[in-house]
From TrEMBL:
Pfam families: HATPase_c, HisKA, PAS_9. Residues 38-111 form the PAS domain. One of its GO terms (molecular function) is phosphorelay sensor kinase activity. It comes from Archangium gephyra. It catalyses: ATP + protein L-histidine = ADP + protein N-phospho-L-histidine. Residues 113-165 form the PAC domain. Residues 1-40 are annotated as: Disordered. Its EC number is 2.7.13.3. Residues 185-396 form the Histidine kinase domain. Signal peptide: none annotated. Keywords: ATP-binding, Kinase, Nucleotide-binding, Phosphoprotein, Transferase, Two-component regulatory system. This is histidine kinase.
Amino acid sequence: MPLHPSDTLARPLRSTPGEKPTEGSFPCPLPPPSPPGSDASFRLLVESVEDVGLYMLEPDGRVASWNVGAERMTGYRAAEVLGRHCSLFFLEEDVAAGLPQRLLDEAEQLGKVRDEGWRLRRDGTRFYALILITAIRDAEGRLRGFTGLGRDITARRETELQLREARDALRRHESLSDMGSLVAGVAHEVRNPLFGISATLDAFEARFGHSPEHAPFLSTLRREVSRLHHLMHELLTYGRPPGTELHPCSLSSVFAESMDVTAALAREREVHVELSVEPALPRVPMDPGRLVQVFQNLLANALQHSPSGSTVRLTARRLVDEGHTRVECMVMDQGPGFVPEHLPRVFEPFYSQRPGGVGLGLPIVQRIVQEHHGSVSVGNGAEGGAEVRVYLPAEGEPSAATHPGSR
């Protein structure tokens, strides 16, 4: 008997009374079966859902229907998949292991089956999917086919992996007190973004389309996802274990890249960035990418605290100290400077006095500079504004000595 969407697609997937959706579940059940005469409207509704893949399978696993959400998720148009077996979307090794048929068999025996795993798009790229397959039976109990719902949860999985890596990084952290601060900070900072993501997804998936009334939900989602990814990036950077390989390089390219990365922020803040590098500056043993992070953080901090029309200065000079050659790099702004009472705590993880700040910028700077056998100090200039000094050993020199006010 052929499958018909109006009396089969929605019914098996509706929650029972009082049932609560679980983590990773589909919080918006399909509408109830359409009344007689509305088959075309129901089909149009199902086919227009863009954020969830909805499809139907014949008893042997061949695709019987395919909506626009499934098309967006996989890249396959309906004409390309109708009549083809659902194993088309599985990895080669999963097909060889019999996974597609095993899922259909379990759905037939148990009524429904839920699975997470890698799937293939039309262009050959992979995505991580959550699928729910439900068996459809007629009044006599004969199997008529299956309904399928699928969601691309690649981003969620990446976030979970980042959180796991962050926890691993925390375990590697040598200071128990710092570890406690990190754990507390993560718990505080991640909780709200995750709640925002979850609430926004629920609200968004409860509706279909992209009308203006949905814009606030989408905006919140993007903001919270961005915040979470930024936090995870900084946390992983801070928790990265030591062992950086250093090679002598020029600081000029590091400064240039750091200024390029922060150029948009400088334009937004209407602040001029001025670079002054002493001629014939000695090379420094470094990991260039890591040092770019240092000066990117320092310039960003300076720009965020600088008034419109002011200047942020980045300077570098040779410094001979007790017979050893060092390079002194300074970032100076014309903002309010550091509050003297805060200076002892500026390198503590998650300590921030800036609204919306994560409090990992300076701790990351300190960690990376120490990996380069250098030191960093903070203070205020004689004429106001904050000053951050980074000392790095020149090529051929031993580790940097500790300078007054450095950490």
